[in-house]
């Protein structure tokens, strides 16, 4: 197991890529604090998504707790670290994954919507990384932080002018944090998922024409699944990547390099 005995926090862990990360961490031997935000789960059938993830982790033989809170609030990051200390005795791994992408045109983008996306995607990542890093530093044993950026950090999107800058910011945050935290033995990396079938991009992957177009654009011939990203996150969080920091790894089936 790549993460045997490790204590992890996963933000945005109740659905999609976050859920995949939580379960993969458990398969690799980690105990997990599952962060979720009840407001983000409204309108979805799985209203008890976080509880289900906890049950699945426990079925894998690992410990888990669910902690509710909007990651845009800096106090939530502090609470997640405190919960990990209370439940597991500390923090070894952070997967900063929480993010939102409410598609909207640029010219009439409401200021409130822009601010919300920035506060969740970039502000939330900043404060989660800061809180976890402070605890890792206090423990004196180093640690690993992996943030979920996006292929959108590298390409534009007409309906994502509020989203793509935040994902570029997460990528940049990990580069700078790698420098700032390297002396403390804390590694910081990011993953850049491409077309992954989750709730956040359901409009894309459920449209047959767009799905067919993207499937043909992706050299590996299929949309990604949350597990595809989760396995890479687990690798970067593990000692297998002990000399990897400041890196950004595309997990996109080759989509970015295929310009046809």
TrEMBL record:
GO terms for molecular function: oxidoreductase activity, acting on the CH-OH group of donors, NAD or NADP as acceptor; quinone binding. GO terms for biological process: fatty acid biosynthetic process; rhamnose catabolic process. The keyword Oxidoreductase applies. The keyword Methyltransferase does not apply. Pathway: Carbohydrate degradation; L-rhamnose degradation. Belongs to the short-chain dehydrogenases/reductases (SDR) family. It catalyses: L-rhamnofuranose + NAD(+) = L-rhamnono-1,4-lactone + NADH + H(+); L-rhamnofuranose + NADP(+) = L-rhamnono-1,4-lactone + NADPH + H(+). SUPFAM superfamilies: NAD(P)-binding Rossmann-fold domains. It comes from Devosia geojensis. Pfam families: adh_short_C2 (PF13561). Its EC number is 1.1.1.378. Signal peptide: none annotated. NCBIfam families: PRK07231.1. Coiled coil: none annotated. Keywords: NADP, Oxidoreductase, Rhamnose metabolism. This is L-rhamnose 1-dehydrogenase (NAD(P)(+)).
């Amino acid at each position: 197991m790549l993460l045997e005995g490790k204590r992890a926090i996963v933000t945005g862990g109740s659905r999609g890529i976050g859920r995949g990360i939580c379960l993969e961490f458990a398969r690799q031997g980690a105990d997990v604090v599952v962060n979720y935000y009840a407001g983000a789960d409204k309108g979805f059938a799985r209203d008890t998504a976080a509880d289900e993830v906890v049950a699945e982790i426990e079925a894998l033989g690992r410990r888990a707790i669910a902690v509710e809170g909007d990651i845009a609030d800096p106090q939530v990051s502090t609470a997640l670290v405190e919960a990990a200390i209370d439940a597991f005795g500390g923090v070894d791994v952070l997967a900063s994954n929480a993010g939102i992408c409410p598609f909207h045109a640029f010219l009439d983008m409401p200021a409130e919507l822009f601010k919300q996306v920035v506060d969740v995607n970039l502000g939330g990542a900043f404060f989660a990384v800061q809180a976890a890093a402070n605890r890792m530093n206090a423990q004196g044993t180093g640690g690993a932080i992996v943030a979920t950026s996006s292929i959108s950090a590298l390409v534009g999107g007409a309906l994502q002018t509020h989203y793509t800058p935040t994902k570029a910011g997460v990528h940049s945050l990990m580069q700078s944090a790698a420098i700032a935290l390297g002396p403390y033995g804390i590694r910081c990396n990011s993953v850049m998922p491409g077309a992954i079938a989750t709730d956040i991009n359901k409009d894309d992957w459920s449209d047959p024409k767009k799905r067919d177009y993207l499937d043909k654009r992706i050299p590996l011939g299929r949309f990604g699944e949350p597990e595809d990203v989760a396995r890479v996150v687990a690798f970067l969080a593990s000692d297998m990547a002990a000399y990897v920091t400041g890196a950004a790894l595309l997990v996109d089936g080759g989509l970015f390099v295929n310009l046809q």
